[in-house]
Amino acid sequence: MSDEKKEKGAAAKKLADPIAASIDISTQEMIKRAQRLDIDTVFDRAVTLKPCNIGMQGTCCKNCAMGPCRLPLPKGGIEGEDQRKGLCGATANTIAARNFARMVAAGASAHSDHGRGVAEVFLSVARKESHDYKIKDPIKLLQIAKCFDIAVTIEEDGETKDRDIDEIALELAEKAIAEWGKPEGELTYLKRAPEALYEKWKKNGVLPRNVDREVVEIMHRTHIGVDQDYKNIVKQCTRCAIADGWGGSMLGTDLQDVLFGSPTPVQSEADLGIMKEDHVNIILHGHEPILSEMIVAAAQTQEMIDYAKEKGAKGIQLGGICCTANEVLQRHGIPPAGTFLQQELAIITGACDAMIVDIQCIFQNLANVAKCFHTKLITTHPIARMEQENVLHMEFDEHYAMEDAKKIVMLAIDNFKNRGSDVEIPRYKDVQVAGFGVESIKYHLGGSFRGSYYTLNDNIINGRIRGVAGVVGCNNARTKHNEEHIEIVKELLKNDVLVLTTGCSALACSTHGLLKPETAAVYCGPGLAEVCETVGIPPVLHMGSCVDNSRILLAATEMVKAGGLGNDICDLPVAGSAPEWMSEKAISIGHYFVVSGVYTVFGYQMPVEGAPQFKKYLYEEYEKVFGGKWDCEPDPIKHAHKMIAHIDKKRQALGIDKARERILMDMADRQALEG
């Protein structure tokens, strides 16, 4: 085809307007570049491929070969009893509940299988079968061991002695991995929840038995002709979601901290501008840090640095996409190149020598984009391969971790010489401070010896901080990239709400300069700004990847323990948000926050609009049972103010809706409080 015909063909295509597609300047530039090169991206596909309206409403059933049965809302709305039904007679409420449940099951599976993978590596380390990984946080190992009733001391010759750390690790590994399939009992971590919440779960019969069983039971219940009561289906959703948030995800996060080190605040940069024209650029994309930890270690060896220089590069630049980005950021300061929607754009710079992917949120279209450049696209996980011939599969084996990692890094270095001259790296990036966990927040609030969440609670009670919001989740090409995340967070900060963030929302905040201590003076209300300046933290705390949402649950639990704000998570002036959600993981996350007592607002849309009774059950009636409820609001300012209104409602219920008079306290007063 001639160049003239190509240009005419490109002009005839429906293409995304870069300015309308994203608020990120780097993204806008790379969309324009892709369009000049006639390379389609997710932003263009979002223009040409429209979503199914009935599917969006949650009332399309394809669970058997008699379907799909599509149940649109009647024109003019529903009056009286809803007579819509599928071929088997399933009502709109049953269909929507089944679809919702299957999303919870898939999301819980993704996070919990991630956690299982970490547990398996931990077991191999404990058995001395894998020598490239070490236990980097023995203190956290001992803390987790106590949760599993594992003795950390022994009595010997009448003396109490510390038990061998390797023995503890092996016993913990065996007990932890059993959480996915033990035949009786309940998940061990459920007792980490506030007592009132645990008793609520127990009373309502939703204590998970093991992770895998809850997923399997959802799939069974939603088969044709099984569970046909939407309330009963949602009950199993609840059990499965708890197994994710307080089970597989929480175990995954904890064991990652033990193996790779618990995060501590670290300064880095963010956005596509972190890539370097004179360096070998390796992009790590996916979710599991098992491989990426080794890639970081290999790339930082003098051997690999020298090899890169031999090939004409000045060094090796690592960057991340999606939650692998968050994992290597929070432990090593490796800068993220972008969010979920920027993955194709990292290759379109022309400077990406290798993109190494593991699991989850990886576009198959990366292979088509890579064909247009020199980039080596490498899959590494046995459950995540691509059909395209130009994708190289190098399966990673934790027993030969460093050896495999060096092979991959060397492949990227060897590819540096094949890079073309048409390189266009956006020059935009921003500074961030990331790596906040439950423990590091304690330290910032109270120091080494007095670390607790009392300081946070006290500033909520006295009115300097209005409340706390968790803003998490994905990007969605059906919304303007990053806009909802940033507008919601800014509105919350302006109203003195401290923000905890994870996943691609955290990456969006880092790209737009909200993860710096100096941000407080620019965007925060006077109370929150004062606290952040005094403590020395940003007003938006990066708490990790999407599997690390369990950190937010535990932070809320610490607030309950610190006292003064009620006896359960549902009593706290807190709210949750997923502004640009798109994955099934987000539904599982949202549901485990709701059933943990958190008012949770999603942006864009929710797949429940076609079943008004089911929607009402989630949005109104569920709060009476668990203290949390679902909501949806696509407008970012209205979205933020719904959260703020809920926070104010909780403040009023606690009797702290009026600011408390400030009192200058001397040391005797403080010691009395400590007592």
Please describe what this structure looks like.
The strands form five sheets. The chain has a six-stranded parallel beta sheet. The chain is of the alpha/beta class. It is globular, with a radius of gyration of 25 Å. It has three domains: 94-260, Substrate Binding Domain Of Dnak, Chain:A, Domain 2 (Up-down Bundle); 272-418, Rossmann fold, CATH 3.40.50; 437-660, Rossmann fold. Strand 17 (599-602), helix 26 (612-626) and strand 18 form a beta-alpha-beta unit. The longest helix has 35 residues, at 92-126. Helix content is 49%, strand content 11%.
**Rough shape?**
globular
Q: Which topology of the largest domain does CATH recognise?
A: Rossmann fold
The largest sheet has its strands arranged as 8-7-6-9-10-11
- Please give the domain count: 3
The share of residues in extended strands comes to 5-15%
CATH top-level class of the largest domain: Alpha Beta
Kindly name the structural category: alpha/beta
Major β-sheet profile? 6 strands, parallel
How many β-strand runs? 18
Helix content: 40-55%
N/C terminus separation: 81 Å
Number of helices: 28
Radius of gyration: 25 Å
Unreliable segments of 5+ consecutive residues: none
Task: Quote the average pLDDT.
Answer: 94
How does CATH name the architecture of the largest domain? 3-Layer(aba) Sandwich
State the oligomer. Answer: single chain
